Amino acid sequence: MSITVSSLNNGLRIVSKNVPTVETVSISAWINVGARDESKETNGISHVLEHMAFKGTKKRTAFDIASEIEAVGGHLNAYTSRENTSYYAKVMKKDAALVIDIIGDIIQNSIMDENELAREKAVIIQEIKQTNDTPDDIIFDHLQNQAYPNQSMGRPILGSKKLVQKITPEALIQCMKKFYCPSQIIVAAAGNIKHEALEMLVRKSLGTLQRQPKKIRKRAIYDGGTYVEHREIEQVHLLIGLEGVSYHDDDYYAASALATLLGGGMSSRLFQEIREKKGLAYSVYSFLSCYSDNGLFGIYAGTSNADVPTIVPMIQTELKKIIDLISKKELYRTRAQLKAGILMSLESTSAQCEQIARHLYLYGKPISSSKLIKAIDRVDIPSIQKVAERIFFSKPTQISIGPSKGVEKAFRLNT
Question: Among 195, 240, 383, 395, which residue's CB has the most CB atoms within a 10 Å radius?
Answer without folding.
Answer: 240
